[in-house]
Fold these 4 entries.
Entry 1:
Amino acid sequence: MQKEMLHFIKMHGCGNDYIYLPCFDQKLTNIDKLAYQLSDRHKGIGGDGIVCIEKSDVADARMRMFNADGSEGAMCGNAIRCVGKYVYEHHICDKQDITIETKSGIKKLHLHIQDQQVTSVTVEMGKPSFEAEKIPVISTKKIILDEPMKIQNETYTVSCVSMGNPHAIIFMHQDIHDLPLKKIGPFFEYHTSFPNRINTEFVQIIDDHTICMRVWERGSGETQACGTGACAVVAAAVRTHRLEKNKEIEVRLTGGRLYITDTSEGMLMRGDCVEVFEGKMEVTV
């Protein structure tokens, strides 16, 4: 064990903030403990987790993301946009169309550039999966769409989708801003129906092209945005005939807005990517 100065960049997409660590020239150890340490908003840098940006043999770069509790995630739609911004603006890849390797596969990104700065990114997020076994959800049903589920003595109508990571979606008529999410979120995350835990989205449909949602992310708690969650919500809404296919949907989140389209080729997500600050911190590696 030794002390080392760690270079980091703090970025966010729609308020979903991560600490980004360029790992092209160094290999980090104990990343789970490092994620927990750095993500602490009082004693660390503060964020929803950390993202390691690495070399890839199959894409322009590789992204590994870790939640604030140290658990490794498969994919984060808001984080991958920031990775695209980093690799372009630091001349790792001087193209507008790039590929990023993730734990849930290779994702294609189109960078929207103004004055040599990446202002937003469109990501091909892949096709949603509704198969309970693949999400995974323990159920006698092969597909979970608008199915009743008892959570802490209350019955919710739940739809489940995988976007490379698992999501449980609850469409609601009441104002979601009044939900006691800190109280009910953990009951969903650790419910026995979800062996790998679950990300949970609570959703209000405003009109045929606008929805509002709040998200409880496994390993991080309530976050201001979730890109895979927004895609999962739109996919479930289209599958249950609440929204139309091939129509861009504005998803309003606590931290900003994402624009999601459910196409026959898969989900498209467009959103911002913002660098907040960069710095160095002494850590044990």
Note: The longest strand covers residues 3-13.
Entry 2:
Amino acid sequence: MKRRTFIVAAVLALSAAHAAEVALDVGHGLADPGAISARGRGEFEFNRDFAQALAPALEARGITVRAVNFDGAIGSLAARPQAAAGADFFLSLHHDSVREELLQEWEWNGETLSYSDAHAGFSLYVSRDNPAPEMSGRCASAIGAMLRRAGFVPTRHHFPKRPWADESNAVHVYDNLVVLYRTTLPAVLFEAGVIKHRDEELLLADPARRERMADAVATGVAACLYAGK
């Protein structure tokens, strides 16, 4: 706890002189809700809820937030990095699923839905085709490290299909993600957890836990952006 307090204090001191701007992208949208949770809720709603917790956590660290797709109206993947142009860092927020062959059916509120309790946990993605791959990787690793320090557990179920960029901090390489390689700035995609997992879905929907996760992510972003300034 003392180490984390020191990190936050150092970041706040630096941020006063070196304000940074983060383009915070809410994945999917009204027309494309993304993955459907075990209880039938669209991923976009989870992404938006987390963005609304993360934005004030970033701002508390002296970081300006540029809201991208908070209203769910952006229709194309290419439009997201365009909306982020000129910011210092692009962070795309998502919630994860699993391979179709792992899904099972269950009844929830009179509806037949799919779930899988096989995998849970967070993960991060970077592209080597991003114009700033080294900084993207550093920021992803910083976010992952702060999440682990806060007690959050990563998932490993995307390896080996998505190779590791930093295994200890759950950072994968995914070169062809449009929102990562078509930006003009360092970029990371964050999967907060697996909404097909019935227990983790409930955790991801819990406001107190969401704020604790947002605090860890914001600390990682700030530590990366202000490093060396």
Note: The first strand starts at residue 20 and ends at 26.
Entry 3:
Amino acid sequence: MDVRFATSFVKLVLDCIDREYPHSQLCWFDSDEDIKPPREVTPAFYGCLDWHSAVHGHWLLVRLCRCFPSAAFADSARAALDCSLTPAKIQGEIAHLQKRPFFECPYGFAWLLQLAMELREWDDPQAKAWLVTLAPLETVVATNFQLWLQKLVSPDRTGTHSQTAFALGLVLDWARSRSDRNFADAIATKARQFYLHDCNYPLQIEPLAYDFISPGLAEADLMRRLLAPIDFANWLSNFLPQFHTAEASQCLQPLQVENPNDYYQAHFRGLNLSRAWMLAGISSHLPVDDPRLAPLHTIADLHRQHGSLDVTSNCYASSHWVGTFAVYLATARGLGC
């Protein structure tokens, strides 16, 4: 990541952060009163096609302003953040969650907490002020996520927004950044319950559909956060024995996007990028002499290269969200937790 690419990603977000339509929202309507324009329902995060993309679009702006504080885009990015993160708008978000406590849970909730974590780690006066504004919503989201987790009986093993392991990994990073031992322990307990005894995962069947997350790699990327390196290495041998074979790279090939205007096919851009960062996370926690490191690095690099192709495309199917995945990968966000 250099300032040139950072600028292009910021531009993608600024082009849609207040673009209300087209809009996609899965929501339960109880009456006519519930049918309102997106800007009235979720006044801080209504652009970028949907709520979760708007949230992690804001995360991208914070992340890149933090990484490139002197960049030319900093002023416009800060102005956009200042426009969204106001007390009145955040209260509007809280009011929405009071009606629908698990709206966009777990995926959107995980990114909201990542946004709060990024602000908290940034030693900047304006960031501190935004964090104070966002904090009440952060508290509501964290509380509701924990309630959701307590009631969760089995994990979602698909490759899209409802996927459990991916969200648990992001929220665990947030909980640890807050030194919230109870929350982190609750996530660890569920993760061990769901995944500790998994074995022989058929990675070759992925993607399951139009995935933007690999269910198998997301699970492994979560477990590397919880297990000591030698224990993780043993767990990985049971879970993904394919990586021990000479044909390891054949079980995971990058996906092609034939029609960049197709919203479902665009998911494959994110899948290539998220696979790359999850493989990097998995590799980072293996012993230095593990024979799987070389093939894992090769597979990760291949996905990084494919995921980076045309990543700043103006096709709205990708441009409203895929920059976040590129920035998360390029700035090694998940490895810094």
Note: The first helix runs from residue 3 to 14.
Entry 4:
Amino acid sequence: MAFTMHSHSGQFCPGHAKDQLEDIILHAIKVGYKTIGLTEHMPRTELSDLYPEELDPSPEETLASLAPRHEAYLAEARRLQQKYASQIHVLIGFEGEWIRPAYGPLIRSLAADPAVDYFVGSIHHARGVPIDLDAPTYADAVRACGGTERALFAAYFDEQFAMLEAVRPRVVGHFDLVRLFSSAPGRSLRRGKGGEEVWARVVRNLECVRRYGGWLECNTSALRKGLAEPYPQREIAEEWVRMGGRFTFADDSHGIAQVATNYRRGLDYLEGLGVKEVWTLERRRAPAAEEGGGGGDEDEAELVERSVSIDEFRASMNLE
């Protein structure tokens, strides 16, 4: 049963992704997905948090459009969830933006919407500066954190820890995204100058996720962006396996062309770690609704965890 728990569309992330949400779902069905988690980016509330492509024609207009766009996304996601229920299991979520602690209450409020099944907890900034936009902005983040990459990594994992404690996301997105524009993205985080301090933060964060029962996504977008391993890199993934932590799986697609990209490589990676299964969510009719023979209202459903073996996952894919 192939799936992704992290995806985006150009319809609701214009300038950042491509394609209409319905077309992406149709393509997901074609490649063999049985479940797709929709996780458009949550709205931001500060002008300083807009990306360059969002500044024209008017930053103020862009900012004002984000909350209504999120509501439109939820409405369309519910429509598509019902329309394609016989072909694919559509989960509705969003990707959290923890730029600073002030976003915590907004994340919790958005997650409380009855339409939302889960959210992805992500960090895309350090000290308020984007870390995955481009190399020059990454350099700005390094300077904002004290001038060294180790200092940036430490700040990133500290901010991630604050997010984990505050909102406890079911899915932790691209755990080590901070390495994307690093001068040595494949370097060990536990060795070298300052490594002990960074690694202690990594372990602390993993232990936090393990305690509250969250999942790390094996995110194959790192491979299409040129990294040698998915997120999280091997030493982090090995530590997570040692702790008994669970993985989910995600392409982090930003349009049709990226759906299921590098999935075979991602599955091989997990198998090399000794991982036998990945986890997703399934919406089931609540017992009371089943006994009553109701009309299938999604609000009467309960969300349950489901394990999918790597073998079953591979068998259901229809990739050329």
Note: DSSP finds eleven helices and eleven strands in the chain.
